[in-house]
């Protein structure tokens, strides 16, 4: 593949997005865990829970700050590197981003300050409310971002206006309640919750191995294991829901993930492992699980899942249909109000396939002049590179089931074995800390790479979405991003490791006050028992 401005722009955006997503999952997970810990503190009044809230809240704050910094840079790229995309679908894509900034980010950012500086200025209940508002803001932020991304995967509630050459929103509620967006939201935030749980368990396990902060570590593992177990199950269940939605909205991505080149009689098997061969259009040495793909993808035993070869043939037909729409579009724009009704009807009848005609822009300036070979090549382009999707998906799923097993084990030890954890399990927990980030990054890779060659699936090809920049300009900004993000990553790691090694800050005054109250209650109960005891 020739490496040009499109590929370089994709590389830059991929690096910035995947770097930003290093911080998002931990922010989501820790925000809820910190709020849960403070809830227990308010209910029990025990200082250990306040200490836990402050310690994990500090690590949350460091991660949150880096996430904000990288997220802002990422959003600027829509205008800088992907200006035609922003022009073409800005009416739809821009709305969720604007709402996210006004509603979710400001909510989260405002109450973060109150969380850190309001301990001695707010009542316990008021500060607890702040902690939950921070967590809600973080989740709302993810919601609106994923609504925008979900629309790119499944563009509903919008139509193309031939006079403005832009997509325009027709149904905001269809965009908001897009099945793909809703499933992605719950799946993504659940993955963030698992990330937070694994992080808390791993750091707490390190403390136990070092014999430090034993009470904090044991309680942290107990909370994180229960929360993480529920979240890990949710990730798997919502992953299944995403697969079912892909059967209807992104059939090519589903077939590529499965390495399914030819349509299989229903119910289709699931390829547990195999070696996809793009050139031969075949998956070698596949080990199949009978019926599994049919049940996952269609939830029936009678519905076929089309293979990539059949879907490429469908793309060929849609390209030819799109050429009719493109020809009518040129006439409409030339004649404007004088356009004949027959031409308008011709456009409307084929407008759903207009995006497929745009695939030919990679080969020829005017799609109507494309040769049969170019049409065939454009149809073939709708098949993404299969082997990275095939293996990324399987590694991600394997890690997902590993999280369920890990959480279940620590939950069992915490609940039924007196919070005693064997040293091998603690070592495993420490080494497992990077695993949820690997799974999350692979998940985003599958979601975004599997959509190629589309920026907006079936509507706007990636090759048409980029800005009119030179290779030099994009290369310079890419180098700047890499240098800046590397520096930020080093700062993040140094700060996180510094405060983890330092450990939690003990609030002496709070602890002494609680101990005094607790001793007083015990003393009063002892005196009452002594008075009630009959004389011998």
Q: Could you describe the 3D structure shown?
A:
The protein is mainly α and 536 residues long. Helix content is 73%, strand content 5%. The protein is built from 19 helices and six strands. The chain has helices spanning 5-20, 24-44, 47-80, 83-117, 124-153, 172-176, 179-210, 214-249, 251-258, 292-298, 308-335, 341-350, 354-358, 372-381, 386-416, 423-431, 435-449, 471-502, 508-532; strands spanning 158-161, 166-169, 270-277, 282-289, 454-456, 460-461. The strands form three sheets. The protein has a two-stranded antiparallel ribbon. Strand 5 and strand 6 (460-461) form a beta hairpin. Helix 1 packs parallel to helix 18, helix 2 runs antiparallel to helix 3 (47-80) and helix 4 runs antiparallel to helix 5. It is globular, with a radius of gyration of 27 Å. The N and C termini lie far apart (97 Å).
Quick description:
The protein has 536 residues and is mainly alpha-helical. The chain has 19 helices and six strands.
> Globular, elongated, flat, extended or rod-shaped: what is the shape?
globular
The strand count comes to: 6
The portion of residues forming beta strands comes to 5-15%
Q: Return Rg in Å.
A: 27 Å
Please, what is the average pLDDT?
89
Distance between the termini: 97 Å
Helix/strand structural class: mainly alpha
Report on the biggest sheet.
2 strands, antiparallel
Note the run of SSEs as H and E. HHHHHEEHHHHEEHHHHHHHHEEHH
Helix content: over 70%
Q: Low-confidence parts lasting 5 or more residues at pLDDT below 50? A: 508-512, 525-536
In the sheet with the most strands, the strands line up as 1-2
Count of helix runs: 19
């Amino acid at each position: 593949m020739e490496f040009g401005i499109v590929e370089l722009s994709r590389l830059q955006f991929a690096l910035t997005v995947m770097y930003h997503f290093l911080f998002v999952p931990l922010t989501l997970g820790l925000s809820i865990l910190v709020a849960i810990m403070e809830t227990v503190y308010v209910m029990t009044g025990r200082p250990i829970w306040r200490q836990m809230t402050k310690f994990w809240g500090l690590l949350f704050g460091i991660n949150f700050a880096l996430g904000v910094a990288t997220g802002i840079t990422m959003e600027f790229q829509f205008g800088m590197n992907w200006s035609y995309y922003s022009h073409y679908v800005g009416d739809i894509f821009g709305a969720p981003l604007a709402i996210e900034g006004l509603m979710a980010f400001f909510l989260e950012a405002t109450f973060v300050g109150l969380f850190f500086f309001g301990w001695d200025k707010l009542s316990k209940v008021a500060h607890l409310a702040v902690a939950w508002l921070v967590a809600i803001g973080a989740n709302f932020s993810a919601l609106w971002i994923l609504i925008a991304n979900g629309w790119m995967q499944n563009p509903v509630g919008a139509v193309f206006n031939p006079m403005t050459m832009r997509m325009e929103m027709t149904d905001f509620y269809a965009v908001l309640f897009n099945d793909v967006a809703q499933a992605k939201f719950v799946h993504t935030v659940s993955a963030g919750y698992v990330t937070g749980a694994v992080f808390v368990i791993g750091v707490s396990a390190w403390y136990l191995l070092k014999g430090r902060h034993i009470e904090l570590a044991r309680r942290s593992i107990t909370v994180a294991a229960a929360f993480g177990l529920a979240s890990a199950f949710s990730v798997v269940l919502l992953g299944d829901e995403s697969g079912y939605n892909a059967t209807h909205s992104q059939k090519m991505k589903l077939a590529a993930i499965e390495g399914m080149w030819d349509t299989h009689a229903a119910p289709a098997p699931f390829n547990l492992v195999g070696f996809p061969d793009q050139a031969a259009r075949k998956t070698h040495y596949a080990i199949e699980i009978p019926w599994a793909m049919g049940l996952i993808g269609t939830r029936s035993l009678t519905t076929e899942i089309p293979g990539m070869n059949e879907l490429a043939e469908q793309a060929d037909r849609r390209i030819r249909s799109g050429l009719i729409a493109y020809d009518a579009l040129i006439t409409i724009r030339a004649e404007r109000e004088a356009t004949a009704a027959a031409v308008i009807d011709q456009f409307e009848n084929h407008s759903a396939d207009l995006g497929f005609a745009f695939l030919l822009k990679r080969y020829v300036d005017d799609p109507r002049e494309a040769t049969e070979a170019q049409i065939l090549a454009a149809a073939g382009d709708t098949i993404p590179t299969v082997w990275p999707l095939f293996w990324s998906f399987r590694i991600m799923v394997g890690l997902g089931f590993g999280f369920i097993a890990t959480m279940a084990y620590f939950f069992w030890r915490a609940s039924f074995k007196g919070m005693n954890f064997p040293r091998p399990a603690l070592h495993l927990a420490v080494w497992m800390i990077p695993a949820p980030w690997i799974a999350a990054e692979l998940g985003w890779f599958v979601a975004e790479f599997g959509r190629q060659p589309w920026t907006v699936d079936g509507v706007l090809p990636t090759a048409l979405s980029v800005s009119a920049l030179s290779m030099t300009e994009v290369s310079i900004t890419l180098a700047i991003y890499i240098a800046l993000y590397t520096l930020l990553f080093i700062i993040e790691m140094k700060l996180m490791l510094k405060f983890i090694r330092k450990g939690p800050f003990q609030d002496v005054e709070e602890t002494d006050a609680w101990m005094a109250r607790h001793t007083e209650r015990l003393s009063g109960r002892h005196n009452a028992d002594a008075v009630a005891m009959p004389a011998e």
